[in-house]
Amino acid sequence: MLNASADCRMTAETKLEARSKKLTTNTIAVAMSGGVDSSTVAAMLRAEGHNVVGLTMQLWNQRRLAGHEGMPESVQGRCCSLDDVYDARRVAQQIGIPYYVVNHEERFERDVVRPFVEEYLSGRTPIPCSLCNNHLKFDQLLIVAQQIGADRVATGHYARVTYDDARARWLLKRPADHSKDQTYFLFGLTQDQLSRTLFPLGDMTKPQVRELAAKCGLAIAEKPDSQEICFVPGGDYKRFIDAYLAEQGESLPDTAGDLVTTSGEVIGEHNGIHNFTVGQRKGLGVATGSPLYVIQISGANKQVIVGGDENLYSRTLRTKRVNLISVADLSEPMRVAVKIRHRHEPAPALIERAGDEEILVTFDEPQRAVTPGQAAVFYDSDVVVGGGWIV
Amino acid sequence: MHRVYLDNNATTPVLPEVFQAMRPYFDERFGNASSIHHHGQETRAAVEDARESVAKLLCCAASAIVFTSGGTESDNLAIAGWVTAGDHVITSSIEHHAVLHACKHLEKTGCEVTILPVDGRGLIDPGDVRRALRRNTKLISVMMANNETGVLQPVEEIGKIAAEANVLFHTDAVQAAAKVPIDARQIGCHALSISGHKIHAPQGVGALFVKKGTRIQPLFHGGRHERQRRAGTENVPGIVGLGKAAQFAKESRDRGDEKRMSAMRDRLEQGILAHVEDVTVNGQGAARVPNTTNLRFNHIEGESLVIALDLKGLAVSTGAACSSGAIEPSHVLIAMGLRPDQARASIRFSLGKQTTDADIDVALSLVPESVARLRELSPTYKKQAVGT
């Protein structure tokens, strides 16, 4: 046990230098989900000798929708499940830090769940994780942390934050382990938020994190990674929308309409635009000779426009609600690489201002399935330049 | 870190005298109180002594006391032990969940339940109880003192209404016991619940007074313990502890200790009101138990204040913990007409027999600065400050 904690401390100390700029205060709040990553962060910071406070955000009550509209009586989702809170609390007890669960259910519903449902019903494909980061984890949690005397919040995200003296800006960078890169979901962080955030896992790979968790004797070292949207059990978002609206006493708006080809020919009907995502092939309900894909979803006239694979490619896209990180403003066009969904290899492109609100992205090569509602995140090598929401 | 504990309505430390009284009953005097041999006789005597001292605290006959595992079991026994399908129950919106959830469960099994409102002070109107009576009303269950605000309810008036209507009356006196005098006969109740760990006895023991001649259906089936009202081998050390704590409470009351308690509570309350702006006493204008004050610090999250104070060594509470440990706004304060944000801005301070003047000093030094820090970071407080 002695050796284990010494190992835990040594590995942790090697990370110290990179963050020394930020470690000016003693108390750090760790956002603990009960998973391997955030548990390891708490153990590392504790081993480094910081005052650590563990916080878990209670965001959603899984039992709320149980029994509603096709939901099973007992809903097994990951978000804020009692098992995860139990795991987080046990880790906190094991490493000897105070631990609290903070209730942000109202805010989560208002800023994440509602917009998620409304985006789908308007024919877009939302990313709730980014909304949660912007409105909950790096907003509400930072406020709570400050209120309880912790000036910094550490999370288990795979990303890096550094201060660039030359630019006098905080930079968000891709992590050492590109396969775990979560910067796509973090593009909304402001300079103030970045200055108070620690990502201690940024220089580590997932196997190293698991190994460190095991060395620290954490029982959750072998716990599987979570993949799905935390509040949507089993990943079935359509069933979730039905159940949520039923619970709210609202009826699902009728978004059924025509299936139309790119040349404007009506070839059938569909049962609601929220059932479709750009690039989707299955479930169109029409038989044709060549494969058909969803090319575009038109919320205004409830049309789902379908076409061949070749119609899926676009050279440009526009983003709104832009957040810039490495630069204060985009006064002239800039060469970057742009990522348009979580599992997309950033593609070379030119970004430039298009009016006050929007940024126009022009790719060198057309990109497949540009999806409104997703984010476009701009990279300069490993540095996140900024990002915006695809319109 | 020096820690100060002002959350005695959640639980209290076992008093040294109580602990000493319990000790022999773990190893030396370990007998089963139902055994006929020496060992059984020894523990049987201890259980009956404890029963008499609890009876003295509640001003009732010893035979009317049933030992249970705590307040929740006592409440459930009183409710489920009397009410059957087709019956009507009257209770209030500020009851402990042990009563409210037991009644909600009854609804599913074919009973009717009326949940009475309270006024802004947290008081139930006895007139409402009278008006809620129906032909099939079997039971009225209204608490004696509220756990969140400490507000004392008009139980004697409700007892009279129950007697006139020939309806059973149960009162949850978990938060009243050892804080105010309790006279079961004067209240006119048929059942009254108390809990050990709220009066400096251990967790896991409680009692239900059941008026003589009132038959009650047991929750558990098994041996003929507790005059067939509660099957299961008695928790002898716990019962001994409850008996000792009851005796201590009675002696302490005869000495007038509650005056000292209410003086400390008032000093805490007045001190905070004097040093922090925009604070309201929840339950103001109603009679309260001497150890509790519930304060609303407008424009803060009580959850953050509780955590901030805990990290500085002061234990207080807000709202009710849900199964994850997150805090939900208190149903009691919501019933009193507070908005959810006002309920979440409320903090309960509750004193115990171990509380000292020095503890109050610590609270008076920590609370104003912590509230100031929270308000500095509160968007709504800033907005309000700019607006005025």
Could you describe the 3D structure shown?
The complex is a heterodimer of chains A (391) and B (388). By secondary structure, chain A is of the alpha/beta class. Chain A folds into 3 domains: 2-237, Rossmann fold, CATH 3.40.50; 255-307, SH3 type barrels, CATH 2.30.30; 312-390, Translation factors (Elongation Factor Tu (Ef-tu), domain 3, Beta Barrel), CATH 2.40.30.10. Chain A is built from 8 helices and 17 strands. In chain A, strands 12-15-14-13-16-17 form a 6-stranded antiparallel β-barrel. In chain A, helix 4 (105-121) packs antiparallel against helix 5 (128-147). The longest helix of chain A has 20 residues, at 128-147. Chain A is globular, with a radius of gyration of 22 Å. Chain A starts with a helix and ends with a strand. The model of chain A is unreliable at 13-24 (pLDDT under 50). Chain B has 388 residues and is of the alpha/beta class. Chain B has 2 domains: 4-12 and 256-387, Aspartate Aminotransferase, domain 1; 16-253, Aspartate Aminotransferase, domain 2 (3-Layer(aba) Sandwich), CATH 3.40.640.10. Chain B has helices at residues 16-22, 38-58, 71-80, 97-108, 126-132, 155-165, 184-187, 225-228, 236-254, 257-275, 302-311, 331-335, 340-344, 357-376, 379-387, and strands at residues 4-5, 65-68, 88-92, 112-116, 137-141, 168-172, 191-195, 206-210, 279-281, 292-297, 314-315, 320-321, 327-328, 346-350. In chain B, helix 3 (71-80) runs parallel beside helix 4 (97-108). Chain B is globular. The A-B interface holds A 53, 56, 58, 80, 82, 85, 89, 98, 100-103, 105-106, 143-144, 146-149 and B 301, 303-305, 307-308, 310-311, 322-328, 340, 373-374, 377.
Give a topology summary:
The complex is a heterodimer of chains A (391) and B (388).
Chain A: H1 2-19, E1 27-31, H2 36-47, E2 51-58, H3 82-95, E3 99-103, H4 105-121, H5 128-147, E4 152-154, E5 160-164, E6 169-173, H6 191-195, E7 197-198, H7 206-215, H8 237-247, E8 257-261, E9 266-270, E10 293-298, E11 303-307, E12 313-324, E13 334-339, E14 347-354, E15 358-368, E16 375-380, E17 383-390
Parallel strand pairs in A: 1-2, 1-4, 2-3, 4-7, 8-11
Antiparallel strand pairs in A: 5-6, 8-9, 10-11, 12-15, 12-17, 13-14, 13-16, 14-15, 16-17
Helix pairs in contact in A: 1-2, 2-3, 2-7, 4-5
Chain B: E1 4-5, H1 16-22, H2 38-58, E2 65-68, H3 71-80, E3 88-92, H4 97-108, E4 112-116, H5 126-132, E5 137-141, H6 155-165, E6 168-172, H7 184-187, E7 191-195, E8 206-210, H8 225-228, H9 236-254, H10 257-275, E9 279-281, E10 292-297, H11 302-311, E11 314-315, E12 320-321, E13 327-328, H12 331-335, H13 340-344, E14 346-350, H14 357-376, H15 379-387
Parallel strand pairs in B: 1-11, 3-4, 3-5, 5-6, 6-7
Antiparallel strand pairs in B: 2-8, 7-8, 9-10, 10-14, 12-13
Helix pairs in contact in B: 1-9, 2-9, 3-4, 10-14, 11-14
